[in-house]
Amino acid sequence: MIETKLSFIKDVKNLKNPVVLFAFQNNGEASIQGFESSEPLKALATMVKLDGFKGNDGEVLLTRPKNDTPFERVFLVGLGKKEDFTLDTLRRACARALKACELLGLKEITLLAPKAGKAFAFDLEFQALGEGIFLGAYRFDRYKAKSSDHKGLIEKAHILLGDNSDSDLLEKAKAGLKRARIYSEATMLARNLINEPPSRMNPEQLAAEAKQLAKSGSITVTIHEKKELEKLGMGAILGVGVGGAVPPRLVEMIYKPSGKAKKIIALVGKGITFDSGGLSLKPAQSMETMKDDMSGAAAVAGVFQALAELKPNVEVRGYLAIAENMPGGRAQKPGDVLKAFNGKTIEVLNTDAEGRLVLADALSYASSKKPDVIIDIATLTGACVVALGHLVSAIMTNDKSLSEAIINAGEQAGERFWPLPLVKEYQQDVKSKIADLKNIGGRRGEAGTIIGGLFLQEFVTDIPWAHLDIAGPSWTDSDTPYCPTGGTGHPVRTLLRYLENL
Ligand code: BES
Ligand code: ZN
Ligand code: ZN
Predict the structure, then answer these.
(1) Residues with CB under 6 A from ligand 1
(2) Are residues 150 and 231 in the same domain?
(3) Model pTM greater than 0.90?
(4) 480: which DSSP letter?
(5) Confidence class of residue 197 from pLDDT cuts 50, 70 and 90?
(6) Number of domains comprising the chain
(7) Residue 162 confidence class, pLDDT cut points 50, 70, 90
């Protein structure tokens, strides 16, 4: 993890070269940010050779001052138009700056914190800045023979504040960077769990990783193994797991604050360590990324790692519904009927709609403990990727204020959610002729994401509940500014922000 150092400009004797400066694009011209109170930097701003740099979002330019200044080189990084600025603009810009310095083989990066375009709280702004740096440095290269093909890795980030030593600003910046570190480490834990090859990160290993989190005194972790699942009557998770070589598990995690909890929040994560589709086998290409089908569970694990440090005043209960979905001589068959923890029976017509099955048990178990809120997180439907793509998750809920709180937290965290309706009239599509429910809807997969949500709703009692279908954003097919190809760790930061906003 990169070490960070915060200083006021006037306290800095020898600024490391080069220094990163951020600029908005204003009427087609770059407007360099953050200098207002700093004479040396104000002077520098007028001396920088812009070489056509306009300050557009995504633009990066390495340039030199025209005259002699303490700086040999300057990185200009564009923030785009001021009116379009969001906290995520800053995350992306910081990550780009970091990459640019890395390419030069630098070990340290120095950047001047920009003045935000809108009235964001300073601590949120510094958190976004820190997340851009920490997450921008993430890579998953433990399986490369030569551990890194990068020229250099940044070890230290110097972050410069304005000139007048404002102690309030310094405190907020410190608090923001501390949160950035915790949120980023939680995100990176989720990324690592997802990116690990699926035969390693199997149900046993994923449960063991969750168990690790009980190191902290405020967290307890219980692993319910196969025998226990049988005793509890969790026929759905058992049915999904029966084809796998490694049996399924339900992991139950509890974080308790030291004082009285304001609320009890349950987080339920889909943890299919590999989704082959089972006997309703997926085509080869669709399987390539199916190690990411445990992203919901990985996100919950990430959240718990952070809770131990953030210590919010809420009780959080995590449920990881873990299984591998495999074909084989013992695998469940289309037409089989399962009985879930709440007693409802399910006709399995497509073994590839397995997420809703493992969640059926986990959600009804979570509901039986009567928390104040339940949020489930699942890579549930390919239809969601079709509808919203890789940048937006779907959110479905029985409580509008809950979904609004999550969407709002997502905006602060740089993760996007869009509501889909739980259309009552479609509920009949998941009714079975021979059991209470069937695990797929109408023939052509119409409203597939909503059908998934309606099926899950059968397993929550009248507790405020939100279902996050993260099938798109859980994974990126290409390198993005602060996430390389692979698992993204979405929506760890949103969930943390939601819990901290309570
Ligand atoms: N894990 C998949 C959903 C998925 C697809 C996640 C693509 C990420 C990217 C899920 O278990 C699945 O296979 N769902 C089926 C449901 C269908 C059979 C009703 C799907 O989307 O095709
Ligand atoms: Zn599936
Ligand atoms: Zn799946």
Answers:
(1) 275, 293, 350, 352-355, 379-383, 385, 440, 448, 471
(2) no
(3) yes
(4) B
(5) very high
(6) 2
(7) confident
